[in-house]
């Protein structure tokens, strides 16, 4: 009787093993791997954050120097800096607000204005000097102050320029104070989450003030 029970137990084990192998073979090849890869990728992808770094056209600011050429009308061409009030006095068309405009927006605006006097006017605009891109960093960091750059800057880049952090700096609660047409805004930046890959870097805009508490 004992021998018979042992045989039955062995047969049951073999049958269960065969069933498990058949089920595994029926699963589409690589599906488990794909699910695991997707889960890993989801964990690695940082959540989108307001102000997250992205490509954007340069916008003109105070003290930037631009060159304007009107095709076949060299007498209208000029090189001027943006005044503190954000305006430039252009030949023939007068005062124009340029602060906050991209190069293409200003070119379109000037083309419209000049065509009131020169019907076939074709206008080109070139930035000769970038002087307006300044950001300010304050608080518990080694080198606070004004930072003037000639191209786009991210939060990690400006922290690298001004760093290292001082002892007891709260790097999880950095604040960015940004002036917008609708008023000042305050954006949060968690340095620790960014360096761990849990959140994205942040683009800085001219005039931004960064506070490291």
What tags apply to this protein structure?
213 residues, alpha+beta, wza like fold, Outer membrane lipoprotein wza fold like, three-stranded antiparallel beta sheet, 30% helix
E-strand count:
12
Supply the CATH superfamily name of the domain at 134-212: Outer membrane lipoprotein wza domain like
CA gyration radius, whole angstroms: 31 Å
Distance between the termini: 80 Å
Query: Strand order across the biggest sheet?
Result: 7-6-12-9-10
Please describe the biggest sheet, giving its number of strands, its sense, and whether it closes into a barrel: 5 strands, mixed
Run of helices and strands: HHEEEEHEEEEHEEHEE
Unreliable stretches: 5-12, 25-49
Would you tell me the overall average pLDDT? 81
Discrete helix count: 5
Structural class: alpha+beta
CATH topology value of the domain at 134-212: Outer membrane lipoprotein wza fold like
Residue fraction in strands:
25-35%
Which outline best applies? elongated
CATH architecture of the domain at 134-212: Roll
CATH class of the domain at 134-212: Alpha Beta
- How would you classify the quaternary structure? single chain
Kindly state the percentage of residues in helix: 25-40%
Descriptive account of the structure:
- It is a single chain.
- β6 (134-139) and β7 (145-148) form a beta hairpin.
- This protein has helices at residues 2-26, 31-44, 103-114, 155-162, 191-195, and strands at residues 65-70, 78-81, 87-90, 94-97, 123-129, 134-139, 145-148, 153-154, 174-180, 183-189, 203-204, 209-212.
- The model is unreliable at 5-12 and 25-49 (pLDDT under 50).
- It is built from 5 helices and 12 strands.
- It is of the alpha+beta class and 213 residues long.
- Helix content is 30%, strand content 27%.
- Among the domains are: 65-129, wza like domain (wza like fold, 2-Layer Sandwich); 134-212, Outer membrane lipoprotein wza fold like (Roll), CATH 3.10.560.
- The longest helix is centred in the first third of the chain and has 25 residues, at 2-26.
């Amino acid at each position: 009787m004992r021998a018979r029970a042992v045989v039955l137990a062995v047969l049951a084990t073999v049958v269960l093993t065969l069933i498990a192998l058949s089920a595994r073979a029926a699963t589409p090849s690589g599906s488990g791997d794909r699910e695991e890869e997707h889960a890993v990728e989801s964990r690695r992808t940082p959540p989108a954050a307001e102000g997250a770094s992205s490509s954007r056209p340069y916008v003109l600011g105070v003290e930037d120097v631009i060159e304007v050429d009107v095709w076949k009308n060299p007498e209208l061409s000029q090189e001027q800096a943006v005044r503190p009030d954000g305006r430039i006095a252009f030949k023939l068309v007068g005062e124009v607000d340029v602060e906050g405009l991209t190069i293409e927006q200003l070119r379109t605006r000037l083309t419209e204005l000049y065509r009131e006097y020169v019907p076939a006017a074709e206008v080109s605009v070139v930035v000769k000097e970038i002087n307006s891109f300044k950001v300010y960093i304050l608080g518990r960091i080694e080198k606070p102050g004004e930072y003037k750059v000639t191209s786009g800057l991210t939060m990690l880049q400006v922290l690298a320029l001004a760093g290292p952090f001082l002892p007891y700096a709260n790097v999880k609660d950095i604040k960015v104070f940004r002036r917008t047409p609708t008023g000042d805004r305050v954006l949060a930046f968690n340095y620790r989450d960014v360096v761990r890959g849990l959140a994205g870097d942040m683009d800085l805009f001219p005039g931004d003030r960064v506070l490291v508490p």
